Structure formats: structure tokens, C-alpha cells
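Exercise (ungraded).
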Amino acid sequence: MTDGTVIEVQNLVKRYDGTAVVKGVSFSVARGEIFGVLGPNGAGKTTTILMLLGLSTISGGQARVLGHDPEREPLAVKRRVGYLPDQVGFYDNLSAAENLRYTARLIGIERAEREAKIADSLAQVGLSDVANSRVATFSRGMRQRLGLAEILMKDAQIAILDEPTSGLDPQVTVELLEMIRGFKRRGVTVLLSSHLLERVQSVCDRVALFSEGTIVLMGTVPELGRQVLGGGFRVEVEAQGQDLAKNLAAIPGVQKVESPSPTQLLLLADHDVRPEAAAAVVAAGGRLQRLAVAEPSLEAIYTRYFHDHPQESAIHAA
Amino acid sequence: MQREGSALNGLGVVALKETSDHLTSVRMRVIECLIIILAFVTVYFAAAQVRDTTPEDPFAFLRLFTNAREDVPLSFLFFLSTFLVPVMAIGLAFDAVNSEHSRRTLSRVLSQPIYRDALLFGKFGAGLFTISVSLVALWLLVIGLGLLILGVPPNAQETARAFIFLLVTIAYAGVWLALALLFSIVFRSAATAALVSFGLWLFLVFLWQFVAQILATVIAPPDPGYTSLGLQTPETVEWQTALARLSPKTLYDEIALALLNPAQRALGPIYLAQLQGAVLGAPLPLGQSLVIAWPQIVGLIAGMIILFTIGYTVFQRQEVRA
């Protein structure tokens, strides 16, 4: 393991009653990185996370978290790793601060530092006003933020967040993702699982796409885009005119032209062909309305991947 | 595989939190009311009867626990063993673990640097502590009321017997607590756990003695040689007592009988020959009463430990995720 690697997983397997749920996944996460574990529900994301935390036994393979084996040294791992479970729950009869106080004592934070740390972490997630309100009155988003406050209070080196944005409205999601970026700025490594692709795309440095208990794709989003969608650049052209598709296809470097609607054209090219495309439209006497280069979206990568590998999705549907 | 660190890390924190939850809960208010009513009612009834015989009875104080008015045969002991202790213990523990699942707090708490052992031990300890506090309060209430009504202080032997009786009552509560805790681990729904716990309580407390009777006659049919003389067959009786002792209530009642009634010379069937030379009605010293009840005391504590261990094993193997 190199110095920069904080999570190292090799051939990890989890079997329940003989059925493998996680079938030999391998990945590693570098310090300070935001790593996305993506995939449909039931793909083995949460199971993998629980094995990393020592909360579930490992059926095969190896995991190392900050150099510790989560099965043999769970306390060492859990002292340094913060975990926000899917749909995190708190004790409803206690206030936000009381809930954190309980965790702080479980972690073993000294009495002298406890209150300051609780107040500080609540302030960072914007819950200072409701520190003494009972958690029963909290919304879903507030509970998620309280969960993040707990990780902040713990001074965790790694934050493992399971579906942090599921069930939140768009505005709260944006706030939460901003807090996750804040973790990265503090040097905290983040492992993030989600089935909502476009939301996490914006924060993740690297992603691993889970399907059926295996990792089918891994890398940065642009890398995956090239790998799956084939072309380097996707240029969107909106224009009105005659024979535009033919003219655009003639541009050097353009591999393919698609036309989803009469006024929309999609170019796949090996470099940014926007200037040439603009010239071509004008030369053909067309009216150019919009010209843009599209970032490869995870959604598109995902859909295309499962479109190209129908057997796997067929098994999934069954 | 050797685990790193102590399994009891965080035990005190969990126990303290659970105790504070118990003590501030509505359930506790209900238990407090029950205790006060029970103490007043049973002592009042028992005292009315005990007062008549106070001068000649050296153990008048202990009668407070066991005696009842003849027209209302509900003694303090009967209430304690049949209703109060089981209901209190089940009420405190039936949702101990499954509520952590349903509130989705389990995985978050277990992702803190503690082992599952600490959580379970903490919950059991807190439950037992809460019940102990209640039972001590009840015990003091009864003794205090007894002092007021009878006007005689208990002698040293009576105090010692009543105190050991209190400890045994706590162990008895531990059995029911471990049982309810086990069901709270096995059943994910608190309602199911409560139903099964209370169902088993009704069965063990009210029905089991009759079932034991029937089973005994099936296993060891009565010998016509005895029945024609109007006697019970020894084998049948032995089987019946052995089976009945599978219920914690039987064990507890027998211990209480030996402790609170110093004249009690044996528990279960004995032959007349064994009583030869015994001065019937003469009280036994405390040590001898303890010897008589010792197997039952050990049985009660063993039952608590076995039930807790089963729950512990199931909990260790359980998946954190539903």
C-alpha cells in the first residue's frame, strides 16, 4: 500500500447463505479523494461499506482501511472513520446536542473538549439554532446534516456516506453536496454511495459503477465517458437549414452525426469542433441557434453501458 | 480470531444512557404507580391478618410478604411473582434492540468505536438496574408500612431473610428481562416481541403447572397400587415437580417459600420416613433455609445467564442492516 492510499480493497466477497452479494470487488481510494460508489439498489454498495466498517463479516478477499483490517481491528477503524448510514436515525426523544453528546462519549472525547466540539460541529452544518430541539421535530435534511455533524465532531479521516442525498429536495441536496466538498477541503477522504447519478457526478473525483455485486466500470467521469460513449467530444448544434447534417459530417474529425429532432444535431468528434461546426452551418446558409460541447453525463454512461451489456441488466430485471 | 481492544468499551456510556431513558419514560411512571398501589393494598390486607397473631409469632414481619386475607387470597408474593416482576421486566426490554433497528440508530451507534457486546450488556444492565431500583423502593415501602402498622421492628433474622428475598426477586426479574431482550433481538417488530413475551409469560405463569401435571401422567402413568390407596404415585409426582420447575415462577415461589417461611423443611415431595424425628413447625436457621432453596436459586440465575447468552449469540451474528 502506498502512503496516499487510505482504503484498499482486494477481491472482496460477501455471501449470505451461499449466495454471493458482493462478488470480488477491488478498488482503492487515495487520501483526500471523493470516491463515488454508484449503482442500482441491491448492487452490493451498502454491503461493501458495512464490510469496510467491520459491521459485517467478510466472506472472502481483503480490505484495509487506514492500514487496519476492519474485521480484526474494528475499533481502530471505527475510531478514524465516520459513517452516515442510509436514512440515518437519531434518538427522537433527545435533542440534537444530546444525541451528539451520547456519540461523543461513545467515541471517548474528553469531557473538557466535548461541549465545544458539539457546538462547533453543529454550527458547521447550520444546526446551531435547533441544538436543543428534539430530533423528533427534524426534517430528513436536518437529520442528514446532524449525521454530518457527528462525523465532523469525530474528526474522522474518512467519511463514508451511504446515499446521503436520497429523499432530499433539490435545494437541500445542493447544500449537502457543498458540505461534502467541505470535507474534501479539510483533507477528509470521502466515500460516497448513491443511485442518483447526476447529483453525485458533480462532487466525485472518481467513481466505481457497481452492478450485480461487481464493479463494472471505474475511473473519472470523463474517462468513463470516453470508454463507454466512444467519442471524445459531443458537440450539440441547434440550427435551422438545409442539409446541415451532411455538411457537418464532412468536417474533419467528426465521426458521427445524430439528429434527435429536425433542428437538433449531435456531433461525435475526436476534438472540439465547435468553430468548424459554426462555420459549416453558416456556409450552408443555416441559422445557428445554439452550440455547446456536452460533458459526458454519468446518466448517459450508465444507460449506454447497460444498453451495451444487456445480459447483465436482464439478470437484474429477473 | 482475537479482537483488538476491550469488548466492554463504552459499556458505561450505553448503560447510563439507557438508564436515563428508562427513568424518564412513561413506562417508569406507570411502574411507580403500580408499586405504590401494590405496596399499600397488599400490606393493608396482610397486616389485618398478621396483627391478630403478632404476639405469639416470632416471624410476624415475614408474614407481611406471604399472608393474605382469607376472603381475598392475593398476597404480596403472589402479586410479585405472577404480575409485577414479569410485566415490569418485559415492559422494559421487549423493544430494547428492535427499536434501535426501527429508529435506524443501530448502524450509526455501532459505527462508533464500541463492540456490540457493550450495547447489549449496557441495555441489560440498565434494565436490571431500573428494576432493582423499583424493587428496592417497593421493599422499603412494604417494610416501612409494616413498621407503622404492626408496631414491631423486624429482628435480625427477619431482616436478613427479607434482604435475600429481595436479591432473589431481582434475579427473577433478570430472567424475564433476559427473555424479553432475547425476543427483542429475534423479532424485528417490537409488537411481535411484546406479544410473544407476554404470551410466554401467560403460558409459564398460569398454564404451565397444569401442563406439567398432564405431561407427568403421560410420562409416568399413576400406579394403580398407589391410586387404589388414595395416594399419589411417587414417580408421577417427581416428574410433575421437575417439569413445573422449568418455569421461573415455580422456582421463585419455592425459594420465597423457603426464605419467608422458616418452618418450611423441604421443597417438593418427601417421604414420611424422611420427616422422622423432625420437630414440625420449628423454624430452621437461615443457613438451612438457604440450603433448601439453593438449587432453585442456582437454577434461576442459570436460566437468566442462558437466556442472555442465547440472545447475545443471536445478536452477534445478526446483520446490522434490516
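Further reading is listed at the end of the chapter. For now, observe: Chain A has two domains: 5-219, 226-298. Chain A is about 40% helix and 30% strand.
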